[in-house]
Write a structure and sequence with these properties.
The protein is of the alpha/beta class. It has two domains: about 130 residues, Aspartate Aminotransferase, domain 1 (Alpha-Beta Complex), CATH 3.90.1150.10; about 240 residues, Aspartate Aminotransferase, domain 2. Helix content is about 40%, strand content about 15%. The protein has twelve helices and twelve strands. The chain has a seven-stranded mixed β-sheet with strand order 2-8-7-6-5-3-4, with helices on both faces. Helix 8 packs parallel to helix 12. The chain is globular, with a radius of gyration of 21 Å. Bound molecules: 4'-deoxy-4'-aminopyridoxal-5'-phosphate. The site of 4'-deoxy-4'-aminopyridoxal-5'-phosphate (PMP) has 15 residues, from helix 3.
Length: about 375
């Protein structure tokens, strides 16, 4: 199988699996138990917390463990909006956000919050000048992703943080899910940052919300109060320790992978750009390529590639089961026909030269097979 859907999820590192299995066997205790086994497990939990914050260069932040970025985004945004609604009602959000952000805001709009969308440039980046023009005393939240999950555009996180320095009332949330192990950002000063372990070769079911101030967040469900009274429920220690391991490895391996992925990116682009009716979107990271078979349907291309044992996706896995249009491409002003024919190819450290050759060969075969519908 040739796997090109790493933006949906990645294969765990062998080392992360080793950590997961070992902790599952030797520290399966509840980190909230006060006996020695529980306390030893809690020590491991705290070591993982410290390590994660260290890797992000945020030792002065707090880190709440969650089940993944969906939960982290929910805790950050829902709790924050509840706390800040007496200061204002306006939320500024990029048009590029993941459903786990957009759908929270949709819901809050019905409850009287005002959601304003920050424009996107043709390159799929948040337009910072437009953001600045939307800032006023009623704004309480700005939420932007660090790397887009559909085309891989890198967002101006640091520039936005600078633009917000005169607005101390504004909470700045960054969904860094697709950035970890791919692009280094300075998150210092950002109010909250979400991550998800399975996007950087950890195991599924673990994520984190890093917070400048712990009191910025509020629980969205109630229970024993395990994680700072913010996230109740027995902590998934094996997955959390595996996440800390995967995070270190993915950040350490970042520069090694980059050149190889750039070469793969170049190979795919060169071969596909030569073909009529193929449109390739701009990107910012080498491991994501969004290309369109203009005139065809993206699902048809995905299924035809899948028959050849090559796995790609249409949009994000979270949206592909619904008949939604692709918000990122729409926001960039891409033609509907191009959007309909688009597929996402996403690579990782595990992608090999042979995978890329097979992908290119299969893309060309599919191109021939469906040639009559292409524009
Ligand atoms: N944000 C972004 C940008 C994502 O790509 C994803 C996963 N597709 C999420 C949030 C949600 O992550 P999870 O499914 O791990 O909760």
């Amino acid at each position: 199988m040739h796997y090109f859907d790493n933006a949906a999820t990645t294969k765990p590192y062998a080392e992360a699996m080793h950590t997961f299995n070992k902790v599952n066997e030797e520290y399966y205790f509840n980190t909230a138990s006060i006996h020695k086994a529980g306390r030893d497990s809690a020590k491991l939990l705290e070591a993982s917390r410290k390590q994660i914050l260290q890797v992000f260069g945020l030792p002065h932040y707090q880190c709440v463990f969650t089940s993944g970025a969906t939960e982290s985004n929910n805790i950050a945004l829902q709790g924050m909006l509840r706390r800040k609604k007496r200061f204002g009602r306006t939320i500024l959000v990029s048009e590029l956000e993941h459903p786990s952000v957009i759908n929270i805001l949709d819901h809050h709009q019905k409850e009287g919050f005002k959601v304003k969308f920050i424009r996107t440039t043709e390159a799929g980046r948040v337009d910072v000048d437009h953001l600045k023009s939307l800032l006023d005393e009623d704004v309480i939240l700005v939420t932007v992703m660090a790397v887009n999950n559909i085309i891989g555009s890198v967002q101006p996180v640091e520039e936005i943080r600078e633009a917000l320095t005169d607005y101390p009332k504004v909470h700045f949330h960054v969904d860094a899910t697709q950035a970890v192990g791919k692009v280094r950002f300075n998150y210092d000063g950002v109010d909250s940052v979400s991550i998800s372990a399975h996007k950087f070769h950890g195991v599924k079911g673990a994520g984190a919300l890093m917070l400048k101030e712990i009191k910025a967040a509020e629980p969205i469900h109630y229970g024993g109060g395990h994680e700072f009274d913010i996230r109740s429920g027995t902590v998934n220690l094996p997955a959390v320790t595996a996440m800390a391991k995967a995070l270190r490895l993915s950040v350490e391996g970042m520069s090694n992978d980059k050149e190889r992925l750039k070469d793969f990116n170049r190979m795919i682009r060169e071969e596909m750009e030569a073909l009529r009716s193929i449109t390739i979107q701009p990107s910012g990271v080498p491991h994501i390529i969004n290309l369109s078979f203009t005139g065809a349907k993206g699902e048809v291309v995905v299924n035809a590639l899948s028959e050849k044992n090559v796995m790609v996706s249409t949009t994000s896995a979270c949206a592909s089961k619904r008949a939604t249009s692709n918000e990122t491409l729409t926001a960039m002003g891409v033609d509907k026909e191009v959007i309909d024919g688009s597929i996402r190819i996403s690579m990782s450290k595990d992608t090999t030269h042979r995978d890329v050759k097979m992908l290119i060969r299969s893309l060309k075969e599919v191109y021939e097979e469906i040639g009559d519908v292409l524009k």
